[in-house]
Amino acid sequence: MACRIIMFYRYYVPHLLLRHQNIQILKPKLSFRISRASSYHYYHNLNPTDTQTNFPIKPKLSSFITDSEIEAEFSHHDPGVARINNGSFGCSPASVISALQQWQLKWLRQPDRFYFNELHKGILKSRNTVKELINAEDVDEISIVDNATTAVAIVLQQMQWAFSEGKFKKGDAVIILQCAYGAVKNSIKAYFSRAGGYVIEVPFQFPVNSSEEIISEFRMALVKEKASGRRVRLAMIDHVTSMPSAVLPVKKLVKVCREEGVDQVFIDGAHGVGCVDVDMQEIGADFYTSNLHKWFFCPASVAFLYCRKSIIHSELHHPVVSHEYGKGLAIESGWIGTRDYSPFLVVPSAVEFTNRFEGGIEGIKRRNHDAVVEMGKMLAKAWGTNLGSPPDMCASMMMVGIPACLGVSSNDDALKLRTHLREQFGVEVPIYYQMPKHEEVATTTTGYARISYQVYNKVDDYYKFRDAINQLVCDGFTCARSLGKYGLPSS
Q1: Burial degree of 7 (CB within 10 A; 0-12, 13-18, 19+)
Q2: Which value, to the nearest 10 degrees, does the dihedral of the CA atoms of residues 47, 50, 51, 53 take?
Q3: Rounded to a whole number, what is the distance in angstroms from the first to the last CA of the chain?
Q4: What's the Cα-to-Cα distance from 339 to each of 107, 119, 145, 448, rounded to whole Å?
Q5: What are the φ/ψ torsions at residue 314 (nearest 5 degrees)?
Q6: Which residues have a Cβ under 8 Å from the Cβ of 276 and sit 6 or more positions away?
Q7: How many C-beta atoms lie closer than 10 Å to residue 444's C-beta?
């Protein structure tokens, strides 16, 4: 009898826990409930032989998610914080987190079976899902990676080898915009510049007035370098810039690159999927990367790297070399040693979540854009400031000027003010410092907030931010006089 009890707890209880309808995460008092029906549906979808997407990318629901259901999906968010910074780290709803945990438990329960029978097929299913999302030609063009930074390293590493193998000459160039993401600039230094490459940095005027001024600056830079005889091997272009934030005209910029003889074009779409339209047949780039944990509701961290089919895939390798080396980038990226791969496996679950909304992810993008524009205009009017770009050059994020009297006069001031808003007012929002031109007066706006809008946000979040800034102005606050180390009030 004792042996039977031991066998029951050893073999059957874990199985029951795996299917249990209450999954505890984050806090002991917080539980995400999954109905038995949805649990069955989820496990049915985990069929190891099923590697194709078995759900529509566009929703076909008779009824859509309600406001109360959205609140329940994000009830793990800190209720005391106005979280208007989805752009930095994204968000993941309870139902997708639950799917993540079920994958984790399947691994912990029987790792050998999971590795040999389910992991690679699950990743292939996610790759097929991404293929449909971005209208890629072939699933072989899609590799699942940790984040956009990893994707950039993969391509730049190949460029570094091209220098060392004599395929590139010293002085061959990469062209980027001045506003390129800091991690991308560092990767260019580490892989491209150290190998003998030259960096062309195109000026980026902020606030932004139009797409045409960006295209003009970019073309002028290429024409100038072409006239000097320099070979431009790679163009690295943001789809949505980070800080300051703006949507760039990537289709037109790719066209300019083709006309001016740039070898290859990489679109850094870290904010892409779930935020802007991403169609690889229309964009026409050689490489494209996007995080899926920022605007597509996956838990951190998961991203993809698209490599156009004509590119020689055999020359691209994951920077972390493991047992799958030489089997193709997609296979290499699917196993870089023992680690938690569950974020790679929940992409289909994220699609299921977006399909609960009217219009699916397209409807979410449209409503987020409309809302962030409305909130940006409301804040600018309340503070007597300006927006950082026209509404048609923002997606789900917008730059809004903050009152000049707050005295943001450096990047350090911007970071301290951000910390102060978090710690003293419960508002999470990035602050950007824009250096004034010599001819600009002291009342010029030098501080901008980058506000985001995601499905969990409410108007009250932005009112809270508005009132916090108004309170600082009323109190005569300035960054120089009022903030000590780490953005805490001076004693």
Answers
A1: exposed
A2: -100
A3: 70
A4: 10, 12, 13, 39
A5: -65, -20
A6: 239, 240, 247, 269, 365, 395
A7: 12
Counting residues of the chain whose pLDDT is more than 90, the rounded percentage is 81
**Cβ atoms of residues 234 and 262 within 8 Å:** yes
Number of helices (H), then strands (E), belonging to the chain: the values are 20, 14
Residue 440: its pLDDT value, please? 60
Contact partners, residue 233, CB within 8 Å, separation at least 6? 159, 162, 168, 172, 173, 174, 197, 262, 263, 264
Residue ranges in 137-264 assigned as alpha helix (H): 148-164, 182-187, 211-227, 250-259
Q: pTM of this prediction?
A: 0.87
Tell me if 169 sits within 8 A of 231, measured CB to CB. Answer: yes
Which run of H or of E encompasses 146? none
Distance, C-alpha 174 to centroid of its chain: 23
CA 223, 227, 228, 231 torsion-angle sign: positive
CB neighbours (10 Å) of residue 100?
Answer: 21
pLDDT (tens digit, 9 = 90+) per residue, 431-450? 999 988 765 656 689 999 99
* Residue 34 vs residues 21, 61, 108, 147, 352: alpha-carbon distances, Å: 5, 19, 20, 29, 14
Angstrom distance (rounded) from CA 482 to CA 476? 9
135: left (phi over 0), alpha (psi -120 to 50) or beta: left
Instruction: Output the average pLDDT for the chain.
Output: 88
